[in-house]
From TrEMBL:
Name under which the protein is recorded: MFS family permease
MF-aspect GO terms: transmembrane transporter activity
Transmembrane segments: 50-71, 177-198, 231-254, 266-289, 301-320, 340-362, 383-401, 407-425
Record Pfam families: MFS_1
Cellular compartments per GO CC: plasma membrane
Record's subcellular location: Cell membrane
Membrane topology: Multi-pass membrane protein
Entry keywords, A to Z: Cell membrane, Membrane, Transmembrane, Transmembrane helix, Transport
Amino acid sequence: MTTSTQLIRARRFLPLFVTQLLGAFNDNLFKNAMVFFVVYSVYNSETAEMWFSAVASGVFVVPFFLLSALAGQLADMRDKAQIIRVVKACEIGIMMVGGAGLLLAWRGVGIGTLSIPLMLLALFAMGVHSTFFGPIKYAILPQHLKQGEVLAGTGLVEAGTYMAVLAGTIVAGWIGVHWAAIAVVLVACLGFASSQFVPPAPPLGAIEPLDFNVFRASRKLIMDTVHDRRVFLAIVAISIFWAICTILFVQFTPLAKNVLSASKEVASLFLVIFSVGVAIGSVSINALLKGTVSAKYSPMSVIAMGGFLIAFESICSDWQAGGAMMDVPTFIAHPLAPTLLLTLLGIAVSGGMFVVPLYAFLTTFVEKSQTARTIAANNIVNSGAMVVGALFAGLLSMLGLAVVKQLLVVAGCCLLPAWFGYALLRAERAALTA
């Protein structure tokens, strides 16, 4: 029996895994239902659609930048399981607000003045929810798992996250916005129920006062975290990677609509393929590394991601579509569709292989009493990079660069995380010989 199989059946892991999976599903069901509705039913301009996608991405990640320091302190100073239960209770109220926004949008009530603002407010609140849950889902792993299980646990959490993203994206693309409004509330209730079974995870270090000055706390948190060169390089590489992914996520829906003349179900399919690929990459890299935490394959993985992006852009540029929006069967029947989807899968698989070992660095090379704050510091830097990525995507559109050509810019950006991944590998080897 493999380590992953043993973990998925263990109470010390399964309730956390299910709770995380339901939260990720709900995030993506709500966000994609909102974005698909606005892009396909409200706007009719590639630039406006890109900007709305960018704003939605930015609204969700801003809380990570502002509140991650407090979230990390809280997770290390209090029982992590208890915090999970409080956060999941809040999700129910948040999704009631978001569901109301979706229902009003469906009925055509106050699209620009009420329903969209309500949905963006709920999206911001879900960002706050995820900010406080994020450090815990990784920091609790070394507390409940054995040392040889941490990489497998991290890979399962990542794979589960992306499978939940997959499911949420599929559902958002295929059900009506009114059904999405009901579903997000029900899933929040299920998440709260599963959180009741997460085993206790009390603080491991001395209890310190919480610093509620988020800017001072954020600066101190980052400075205290990056003293280990491996952790610093891992955080930078992860952050650049997520900035690149943010640009891609902003591009996918406008690209499907305006370049490929494809329906929102096809846009959903793109996000599904990406999620499946990252899940495959997350599990594959654990098998290649055999449980060892290492950046051995990270540089070549992200370079491969850039290569797949160039191929993806080439196929999109050669795409010939008629005037009508293609549904999924019509899209699949297009002669270039299989190659396009395989290339997209390659982008995601290589991305998953790049990022999972880097997360394991963050939970392995710090004291267990500091893991939540390390993840929080990573979230602060990640979220800042993701906001920059979202704004960068909007800026490229404002400058008149066609969405398909923006893919080449993203491919070039893959050289940055490749360099930091290589630097991390060198630091890793230097630490082994020291």
